[in-house]
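Deliverable D5.2: sample structural annotation.
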Amino acid sequence: MRRICATKIVATLGPATTDPAVIERLFKAGVDVFRLNFSHGAHEDHRKRYDTLRALETKHGRPVAVLADLQGPKLRVGTFKDGSAQLKAGAGFRLDMDKTPGDATRAPLLHPEIFEALTPGQHLLVDDGKLRLETLDTSPTHANCRVLVGGPISDRKGVNVPGTVLPISALTEKDRRDLAFALELGVDWIALSFVQRPDDIAEAKKLVQGRAGVCAKLEKPSAIDRLEEIVELSDSVMVARGDLGVEMMPEDVPGMQKRIVRTCRRLGRPVIVATQMLESMINSPTPTRAEASDVATAVYDGADAVMLSAETASGHYPHEAVTIMERIIARVEADPLYRPIMDADHAAPEPTAADAITAAAAQVARTIKAAAIVTFTTSGSTTLRAARERPEAPILCLTQNLRTARRLVLCWGTHTVVSEEFASFTKMVDKACEVAKSQGFAEPGETIAITAGVPFGTPGATNILRIAWIR
Protein backbone atom coordinates (compact mmCIF):
# COMPACT_ATOMS: atom_id res chain seq x y z
CA MET A 1 0.00 0.00 0.00
CA ARG A 2 2.80 2.42 -0.77
CA ARG A 3 1.50 5.81 -1.91
CA ILE A 4 3.17 7.44 -4.90
CA CYS A 5 2.07 10.98 -3.99
CA ALA A 6 3.77 13.00 -1.25
CA THR A 7 0.75 15.25 -0.63
CA LYS A 8 -1.86 13.47 1.46
CA ILE A 9 -5.65 13.28 1.02
CA VAL A 10 -8.10 13.85 3.89
CA ALA A 11 -11.67 12.64 3.26
CA THR A 12 -14.75 13.23 5.39
CA LEU A 13 -17.00 10.27 6.19
CA GLY A 14 -20.77 10.69 6.29
CA PRO A 15 -24.06 9.24 5.06
CA ALA A 16 -22.59 8.55 1.60
CA THR A 17 -19.56 6.75 3.03
CA THR A 18 -20.75 4.56 5.88
CA ASP A 19 -20.58 1.15 4.22
CA PRO A 20 -17.24 -0.57 4.99
CA ALA A 21 -16.78 -1.55 1.33
CA VAL A 22 -17.17 2.09 0.25
CA ILE A 23 -14.68 3.26 2.89
CA GLU A 24 -12.17 0.62 1.80
CA ARG A 25 -12.58 1.76 -1.80
CA LEU A 26 -11.73 5.34 -0.77
CA PHE A 27 -8.67 4.10 1.11
CA LYS A 28 -7.45 2.17 -1.91
CA ALA A 29 -8.09 5.21 -4.13
CA GLY A 30 -5.69 7.30 -2.06
CA VAL A 31 -7.25 8.56 1.20
CA ASP A 32 -4.66 8.74 3.99
CA VAL A 33 -6.65 10.50 6.75
CA PHE A 34 -10.35 10.02 7.47
CA ARG A 35 -12.31 12.88 9.06
CA LEU A 36 -15.21 12.34 11.46
CA ASN A 37 -17.29 15.53 11.45
CA PHE A 38 -18.88 15.99 14.87
CA SER A 39 -21.12 18.75 13.56
CA HIS A 40 -23.25 15.92 12.18
CA GLY A 41 -24.10 12.38 13.20
CA ALA A 42 -24.55 10.58 16.51
CA HIS A 43 -21.69 9.13 18.55
CA GLU A 44 -22.72 5.63 17.58
CA ASP A 45 -22.40 6.55 13.88
CA HIS A 46 -18.86 7.78 14.46
CA ARG A 47 -17.99 4.69 16.48
CA LYS A 48 -19.07 2.37 13.64
CA ARG A 49 -16.98 4.31 11.12
CA TYR A 50 -14.01 4.34 13.48
CA ASP A 51 -14.23 0.57 13.98
CA THR A 52 -14.35 0.12 10.20
CA LEU A 53 -11.17 2.17 9.82
CA ARG A 54 -9.30 0.17 12.44
CA ALA A 55 -10.38 -3.09 10.78
CA LEU A 56 -9.15 -1.65 7.47
CA GLU A 57 -5.82 -0.82 9.09
CA THR A 58 -5.42 -4.39 10.31
CA LYS A 59 -6.42 -5.89 6.97
CA HIS A 60 -3.94 -3.85 4.91
CA GLY A 61 -1.13 -3.57 7.46
CA ARG A 62 -0.85 0.19 7.01
CA PRO A 63 -1.54 2.82 9.71
CA VAL A 64 -4.69 4.85 9.11
CA ALA A 65 -5.13 8.30 10.64
CA VAL A 66 -8.50 9.42 12.06
CA LEU A 67 -9.30 13.10 12.61
CA ALA A 68 -12.21 14.14 14.85
CA ASP A 69 -13.45 17.59 13.87
CA LEU A 70 -15.25 19.38 16.73
CA GLN A 71 -18.17 21.64 15.86
CA GLY A 72 -17.21 24.66 17.96
CA PRO A 73 -19.54 27.49 18.99
CA LYS A 74 -22.38 28.20 16.56
CA LEU A 75 -23.70 31.73 16.91
CA ARG A 76 -27.22 31.91 15.47
CA VAL A 77 -30.31 34.08 15.47
CA GLY A 78 -33.44 32.55 16.98
CA THR A 79 -36.74 31.76 15.32
CA PHE A 80 -39.25 33.92 13.39
CA LYS A 81 -43.04 34.10 13.69
CA ASP A 82 -43.58 32.82 10.17
CA GLY A 83 -40.31 30.91 9.90
CA SER A 84 -38.69 33.75 7.97
CA ALA A 85 -38.78 37.49 7.26
CA GLN A 86 -37.59 39.88 4.55
CA LEU A 87 -35.04 42.55 5.48
CA LYS A 88 -34.85 45.66 3.31
CA ALA A 89 -31.66 47.63 2.77
CA GLY A 90 -31.68 50.86 4.79
CA ALA A 91 -34.29 49.63 7.28
CA GLY A 92 -33.71 49.32 10.99
CA PHE A 93 -33.33 45.93 12.64
CA ARG A 94 -32.90 45.05 16.30
CA LEU A 95 -31.12 42.03 17.78
CA ASP A 96 -31.85 41.30 21.43
CA MET A 97 -32.06 38.72 24.21
CA ASP A 98 -35.86 38.43 24.05
CA LYS A 99 -36.82 34.84 23.11
CA THR A 100 -40.03 36.00 21.39
CA PRO A 101 -39.97 34.91 17.69
CA GLY A 102 -38.76 37.64 15.37
CA ASP A 103 -40.13 39.53 12.37
CA ALA A 104 -38.88 42.08 9.82
CA THR A 105 -37.98 44.54 12.62
CA ARG A 106 -36.21 42.37 15.18
CA ALA A 107 -34.89 38.91 15.99
CA PRO A 108 -33.69 37.08 19.09
CA LEU A 109 -29.93 36.63 19.41
CA LEU A 110 -29.37 34.69 22.61
CA HIS A 111 -25.61 35.19 22.78
CA PRO A 112 -24.71 37.80 25.43
CA GLU A 113 -21.02 37.44 24.53
CA ILE A 114 -21.76 39.05 21.15
CA PHE A 115 -23.45 42.09 22.70
CA GLU A 116 -20.60 42.33 25.20
CA ALA A 117 -18.09 42.70 22.35
CA LEU A 118 -20.09 44.97 20.02
CA THR A 119 -19.50 48.69 19.55
CA PRO A 120 -21.33 51.15 17.27
CA GLY A 121 -20.22 51.01 13.64
CA GLN A 122 -19.40 47.31 13.58
CA HIS A 123 -20.73 45.00 10.90
CA LEU A 124 -22.62 41.77 11.53
CA LEU A 125 -22.88 39.07 8.87
CA VAL A 126 -25.90 36.77 8.79
CA ASP A 127 -26.39 33.55 6.83
CA ASP A 128 -22.77 33.20 5.66
CA GLY A 129 -22.60 36.87 4.75
CA LYS A 130 -25.71 36.98 2.56
CA LEU A 131 -27.07 39.72 4.85
CA ARG A 132 -25.01 42.53 6.35
CA LEU A 133 -25.99 44.73 9.30
CA GLU A 134 -24.26 47.78 10.82
CA THR A 135 -24.61 48.44 14.55
CA LEU A 136 -25.93 51.89 15.50
CA ASP A 137 -26.05 51.56 19.28
CA THR A 138 -25.38 48.63 21.58
CA SER A 139 -25.89 47.46 25.14
CA PRO A 140 -25.23 44.21 27.04
CA THR A 141 -28.69 42.97 25.95
CA HIS A 142 -29.35 44.39 22.48
CA ALA A 143 -28.00 46.03 19.33
CA ASN A 144 -29.93 48.40 17.10
CA CYS A 145 -28.72 47.99 13.54
CA ARG A 146 -29.18 49.30 10.02
CA VAL A 147 -29.57 46.78 7.19
CA LEU A 148 -26.78 47.33 4.67
CA VAL A 149 -27.49 44.28 2.50
CA GLY A 150 -31.00 42.90 2.74
CA GLY A 151 -32.73 39.68 1.79
CA PRO A 152 -34.60 36.78 3.37
CA ILE A 153 -33.71 35.73 6.90
CA SER A 154 -35.02 32.54 8.48
CA ASP A 155 -34.77 30.47 11.65
CA ARG A 156 -31.36 29.74 13.19
CA LYS A 157 -29.16 31.39 10.57
CA GLY A 158 -25.54 31.87 11.58
CA VAL A 159 -24.10 35.19 12.74
CA ASN A 160 -20.49 36.32 12.26
CA VAL A 161 -18.80 39.31 13.87
CA PRO A 162 -15.79 40.06 11.64
CA GLY A 163 -12.74 41.75 13.11
CA THR A 164 -13.78 41.06 16.70
CA VAL A 165 -12.38 38.62 19.26
CA LEU A 166 -15.41 37.33 21.13
CA PRO A 167 -15.13 36.48 24.86
CA ILE A 168 -16.06 32.87 24.27
CA SER A 169 -14.24 29.55 24.54
CA ALA A 170 -13.58 27.52 21.40
CA LEU A 171 -15.01 24.51 23.27
CA THR A 172 -18.72 24.31 24.01
CA GLU A 173 -20.26 21.76 26.36
CA LYS A 174 -21.13 19.67 23.30
CA ASP A 175 -17.51 19.89 22.14
CA ARG A 176 -16.27 18.70 25.51
CA ARG A 177 -18.56 15.67 25.38
CA ASP A 178 -17.52 14.97 21.79
CA LEU A 179 -13.85 15.40 22.70
CA ALA A 180 -14.09 12.92 25.56
CA PHE A 181 -15.83 10.42 23.27
CA ALA A 182 -13.29 10.88 20.45
CA LEU A 183 -10.36 10.39 22.82
CA GLU A 184 -12.03 7.29 24.26
CA LEU A 185 -12.29 5.92 20.71
CA GLY A 186 -8.60 6.58 20.14
CA VAL A 187 -8.63 9.13 17.31
CA ASP A 188 -5.25 10.49 16.20
CA TRP A 189 -6.13 14.14 15.60
CA ILE A 190 -8.56 16.59 17.19
CA ALA A 191 -9.52 19.53 14.95
CA LEU A 192 -10.45 22.58 17.01
CA SER A 193 -12.96 25.01 15.49
CA PHE A 194 -13.45 28.71 16.28
CA VAL A 195 -9.81 29.33 17.19
CA GLN A 196 -9.35 33.04 17.93
CA ARG A 197 -6.20 33.17 20.05
CA PRO A 198 -3.35 30.94 21.33
CA ASP A 199 -5.22 30.40 24.61
CA ASP A 200 -7.82 28.35 22.72
CA ILE A 201 -5.14 25.87 21.64
CA ALA A 202 -3.66 25.76 25.14
CA GLU A 203 -7.10 24.97 26.62
CA ALA A 204 -7.63 22.11 24.17
CA LYS A 205 -4.16 20.65 24.68
CA LYS A 206 -4.68 20.67 28.43
CA LEU A 207 -7.79 18.52 27.96
CA VAL A 208 -6.25 16.25 25.33
CA GLN A 209 -3.10 15.62 27.40
CA GLY A 210 -1.09 14.26 24.49
CA ARG A 211 -3.58 11.50 23.63
CA ALA A 212 -4.02 13.01 20.14
CA GLY A 213 -2.55 15.80 18.07
CA VAL A 214 -4.39 19.13 18.14
CA CYS A 215 -5.17 20.65 14.73
CA ALA A 216 -6.03 24.37 14.77
CA LYS A 217 -8.75 25.21 12.28
CA LEU A 218 -8.05 28.73 11.06
CA GLU A 219 -11.48 30.07 10.18
CA LYS A 220 -11.50 33.39 12.08
CA PRO A 221 -9.52 36.39 10.77
CA SER A 222 -8.74 37.30 14.39
CA ALA A 223 -6.57 34.16 14.55
CA ILE A 224 -4.43 35.46 11.69
CA ASP A 225 -3.34 38.40 13.87
CA ARG A 226 -1.55 35.88 16.11
CA LEU A 227 -0.76 33.32 13.45
CA GLU A 228 2.80 32.45 14.50
CA GLU A 229 1.84 31.89 18.14
CA ILE A 230 -1.11 29.69 17.20
CA VAL A 231 0.93 27.62 14.72
CA GLU A 232 3.75 27.14 17.24
CA LEU A 233 1.31 25.87 19.89
CA SER A 234 -0.57 23.58 17.49
CA ASP A 235 0.45 20.14 16.27
CA SER A 236 -1.06 20.82 12.84
CA VAL A 237 -3.20 23.46 11.12
CA MET A 238 -6.23 23.43 8.83
CA VAL A 239 -6.93 26.33 6.46
CA ALA A 240 -10.75 26.36 6.78
CA ARG A 241 -11.39 28.56 3.78
CA GLY A 242 -15.19 28.36 3.84
CA ASP A 243 -15.61 30.03 7.22
CA LEU A 244 -12.54 32.21 6.70
CA GLY A 245 -14.10 33.50 3.49
CA VAL A 246 -17.28 34.62 5.26
CA GLU A 247 -15.48 37.23 7.37
CA MET A 248 -12.85 38.18 4.78
CA MET A 249 -13.22 39.56 1.28
CA PRO A 250 -12.93 36.78 -1.31
CA GLU A 251 -9.86 38.37 -2.89
CA ASP A 252 -8.04 38.20 0.47
CA VAL A 253 -8.45 34.44 1.01
CA PRO A 254 -5.90 33.13 -1.57
CA GLY A 255 -3.09 35.28 -0.20
CA MET A 256 -4.03 34.34 3.35
CA GLN A 257 -3.94 30.66 2.39
CA LYS A 258 -0.41 31.05 1.05
CA ARG A 259 0.69 32.93 4.18
CA ILE A 260 -0.67 30.20 6.47
CA VAL A 261 0.89 27.38 4.44
CA ARG A 262 4.25 29.16 4.32
CA THR A 263 4.20 29.79 8.09
CA CYS A 264 3.37 26.14 8.80
CA ARG A 265 6.13 24.91 6.50
CA ARG A 266 8.66 27.20 8.15
CA LEU A 267 7.67 26.08 11.66
CA GLY A 268 7.42 22.40 10.70
CA ARG A 269 3.70 21.90 11.35
CA PRO A 270 1.59 19.79 8.96
CA VAL A 271 -0.99 21.95 7.17
CA ILE A 272 -4.26 20.91 5.52
CA VAL A 273 -5.97 23.05 2.87
CA ALA A 274 -9.72 22.48 3.17
CA THR A 275 -13.20 23.47 1.98
CA GLN A 276 -14.79 23.57 -1.46
CA MET A 277 -11.81 21.97 -3.19
CA LEU A 278 -13.97 19.85 -5.51
CA GLU A 279 -17.36 21.25 -4.47
CA SER A 280 -19.08 20.63 -7.80
CA MET A 281 -18.36 16.91 -7.44
CA ILE A 282 -21.05 16.65 -4.78
CA ASN A 283 -23.43 16.32 -7.73
CA SER A 284 -21.13 15.89 -10.72
CA PRO A 285 -18.71 13.07 -11.65
CA THR A 286 -16.10 15.58 -12.83
CA PRO A 287 -14.76 18.81 -11.29
CA THR A 288 -14.57 22.23 -12.87
CA ARG A 289 -11.23 23.27 -14.29
CA ALA A 290 -11.05 26.02 -11.67
CA GLU A 291 -11.40 23.41 -8.90
CA ALA A 292 -8.64 21.29 -10.42
CA SER A 293 -6.44 24.39 -10.48
CA ASP A 294 -7.33 25.14 -6.84
CA VAL A 295 -6.20 21.69 -5.70
CA ALA A 296 -3.03 22.02 -7.79
CA THR A 297 -2.22 25.40 -6.23
CA ALA A 298 -2.29 23.90 -2.72
CA VAL A 299 0.05 21.12 -3.89
CA TYR A 300 2.45 23.57 -5.56
CA ASP A 301 2.48 25.59 -2.31
CA GLY A 302 3.68 22.51 -0.44
CA ALA A 303 0.62 21.81 1.73
CA ASP A 304 0.85 18.51 3.58
CA ALA A 305 -2.71 17.54 2.70
CA VAL A 306 -5.80 18.58 0.79
CA MET A 307 -9.27 17.80 2.12
CA LEU A 308 -12.63 16.67 0.80
CA SER A 309 -15.72 17.53 2.87
CA ALA A 310 -19.25 17.12 1.50
CA GLU A 311 -17.74 15.63 -1.68
CA THR A 312 -17.18 12.35 0.18
CA ALA A 313 -19.51 12.77 3.18
CA SER A 314 -22.77 13.29 1.32
CA GLY A 315 -21.91 13.60 -2.37
CA HIS A 316 -22.99 11.27 -5.15
CA TYR A 317 -19.45 10.59 -6.38
CA PRO A 318 -17.13 10.08 -3.38
CA HIS A 319 -14.82 7.58 -5.09
CA GLU A 320 -14.53 9.73 -8.21
CA ALA A 321 -13.70 12.79 -6.07
CA VAL A 322 -10.82 10.97 -4.35
CA THR A 323 -9.60 9.52 -7.65
CA ILE A 324 -9.46 12.86 -9.46
CA MET A 325 -7.83 14.55 -6.46
CA GLU A 326 -5.13 11.86 -6.41
CA ARG A 327 -4.60 12.30 -10.16
CA ILE A 328 -4.23 16.08 -9.80
CA ILE A 329 -1.67 15.64 -7.01
CA ALA A 330 0.31 13.09 -9.01
CA ARG A 331 0.37 15.31 -12.11
CA VAL A 332 1.57 18.35 -10.14
CA GLU A 333 4.29 16.42 -8.32
CA ALA A 334 5.55 15.08 -11.66
CA ASP A 335 5.64 18.58 -13.17
CA PRO A 336 9.24 19.81 -13.83
CA LEU A 337 8.18 23.14 -12.26
CA TYR A 338 7.13 21.52 -8.98
CA ARG A 339 10.57 20.95 -7.48
CA PRO A 340 11.96 24.46 -8.29
CA ILE A 341 8.84 26.01 -6.74
CA MET A 342 9.20 23.87 -3.61
CA ASP A 343 12.90 24.62 -3.28
CA ALA A 344 12.38 28.36 -3.77
CA ASP A 345 10.18 28.48 -0.67
CA HIS A 346 12.46 26.31 1.45
CA ALA A 347 12.84 27.40 5.08
CA ALA A 348 16.32 27.58 6.57
CA PRO A 349 17.01 24.94 9.24
CA GLU A 350 16.94 25.95 12.89
CA PRO A 351 20.40 26.32 14.49
CA THR A 352 20.23 22.94 16.26
CA ALA A 353 22.10 19.69 15.79
CA ALA A 354 18.85 17.86 15.00
CA ASP A 355 17.92 20.30 12.24
CA ALA A 356 21.45 20.28 10.85
CA ILE A 357 21.44 16.47 10.60
CA THR A 358 18.00 16.44 8.96
CA ALA A 359 18.90 19.13 6.42
CA ALA A 360 22.10 17.25 5.64
CA ALA A 361 20.13 14.04 5.11
CA ALA A 362 17.97 15.73 2.47
CA GLN A 363 21.05 17.11 0.73
CA VAL A 364 22.91 13.79 0.88
CA ALA A 365 19.86 11.94 -0.44
CA ARG A 366 19.68 14.33 -3.38
CA THR A 367 23.42 14.11 -4.13
CA ILE A 368 23.66 10.32 -4.08
CA LYS A 369 20.14 9.87 -5.48
CA ALA A 370 19.10 7.81 -2.47
CA ALA A 371 15.98 5.70 -2.90
CA ALA A 372 14.58 6.90 0.44
CA ILE A 373 15.28 8.76 3.66
CA VAL A 374 14.59 6.45 6.60
CA THR A 375 13.78 8.06 9.94
CA PHE A 376 13.64 6.28 13.29
CA THR A 377 11.42 8.14 15.74
CA THR A 378 9.57 7.72 19.01
CA SER A 379 7.70 11.01 19.33
CA GLY A 380 7.59 11.83 15.62
CA SER A 381 9.90 14.87 15.81
CA THR A 382 12.63 13.30 13.64
CA THR A 383 10.14 12.57 10.87
CA LEU A 384 8.50 15.99 11.14
CA ARG A 385 11.91 17.58 10.62
CA ALA A 386 12.51 15.39 7.59
CA ALA A 387 9.15 16.38 6.08
CA ARG A 388 9.86 20.05 6.75
CA GLU A 389 12.79 19.77 4.32
CA ARG A 390 10.42 18.58 1.54
CA PRO A 391 13.15 16.23 0.19
CA GLU A 392 13.12 14.70 -3.28
CA ALA A 393 13.40 11.20 -1.81
CA PRO A 394 10.36 9.67 -0.06
CA ILE A 395 10.44 9.51 3.74
CA LEU A 396 10.13 6.06 5.31
CA CYS A 397 9.31 6.42 9.01
CA LEU A 398 9.98 3.54 11.40
CA THR A 399 8.57 3.78 14.91
CA GLN A 400 7.68 1.37 17.68
CA ASN A 401 4.76 3.61 18.68
CA LEU A 402 1.54 2.88 16.78
CA ARG A 403 0.02 6.21 17.85
CA THR A 404 3.01 8.05 16.42
CA ALA A 405 2.79 6.07 13.19
CA ARG A 406 -0.89 6.91 12.77
CA ARG A 407 -0.41 10.60 13.53
CA LEU A 408 2.45 10.95 11.04
CA VAL A 409 0.28 9.63 8.21
CA LEU A 410 -0.84 13.26 7.79
CA CYS A 411 2.73 14.39 7.18
CA TRP A 412 3.95 15.26 3.66
CA GLY A 413 5.90 12.52 1.87
CA THR A 414 5.83 10.13 4.83
CA HIS A 415 5.18 6.37 4.76
CA THR A 416 4.95 5.01 8.31
CA VAL A 417 5.77 1.50 9.48
CA VAL A 418 5.46 0.13 13.02
CA SER A 419 8.66 -1.65 13.99
CA GLU A 420 10.23 -3.17 17.07
CA GLU A 421 12.67 -1.38 19.36
CA PHE A 422 16.38 -1.82 18.60
CA ALA A 423 19.17 -2.65 20.99
CA SER A 424 22.02 -1.58 18.70
CA PHE A 425 22.68 0.82 15.86
CA THR A 426 23.77 -2.05 13.58
CA LYS A 427 20.41 -3.79 13.97
CA MET A 428 18.64 -0.51 13.30
CA VAL A 429 20.51 -0.06 10.00
CA ASP A 430 19.76 -3.66 9.00
CA LYS A 431 16.08 -3.11 9.74
CA ALA A 432 16.03 0.10 7.71
CA CYS A 433 17.41 -1.74 4.69
CA GLU A 434 15.01 -4.63 5.16
CA VAL A 435 11.91 -2.42 5.40
CA ALA A 436 12.97 -0.13 2.53
CA LYS A 437 13.24 -3.22 0.36
CA SER A 438 10.07 -4.98 1.54
CA GLN A 439 7.93 -1.83 1.28
CA GLY A 440 9.02 -1.21 -2.29
CA PHE A 441 11.19 1.85 -1.71
CA ALA A 442 14.59 0.43 -2.68
CA GLU A 443 16.10 -2.34 -4.77
CA PRO A 444 19.39 -4.23 -4.19
CA GLY A 445 22.33 -1.98 -5.04
CA GLU A 446 20.46 1.25 -4.20
CA THR A 447 21.25 3.49 -1.23
CA ILE A 448 19.19 4.93 1.59
CA ALA A 449 19.93 7.78 4.01
CA ILE A 450 19.14 7.02 7.65
CA THR A 451 18.54 9.52 10.46
CA ALA A 452 18.01 8.62 14.10
CA GLY A 453 18.72 9.71 17.64
CA VAL A 454 21.06 8.01 20.07
CA PRO A 455 20.42 7.02 22.80
CA PHE A 456 17.33 5.37 21.32
CA GLY A 457 13.95 6.49 22.61
CA THR A 458 15.06 10.04 23.42
CA PRO A 459 12.50 12.41 21.80
CA GLY A 460 14.02 15.10 19.59
CA ALA A 461 17.57 13.74 19.77
CA THR A 462 18.24 13.37 16.03
CA ASN A 463 22.05 13.19 15.94
CA ILE A 464 23.04 10.46 13.46
CA LEU A 465 23.14 10.36 9.67
CA ARG A 466 24.11 7.12 7.99
CA ILE A 467 24.23 5.98 4.35
CA ALA A 468 23.44 2.30 3.77
CA TRP A 469 23.37 0.06 0.71
CA ILE A 470 20.58 -2.39 0.03
CA ARG A 471 21.85 -5.95 -0.39
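Annotation notes: The domain at 8-72+169-334 is CATH 3.20.20.60 (TIM Barrel). The chain has three domains: 8-72+169-334, 84-160, 353-469.
The annotation will be released with the project's public dataset once the embargo ends.
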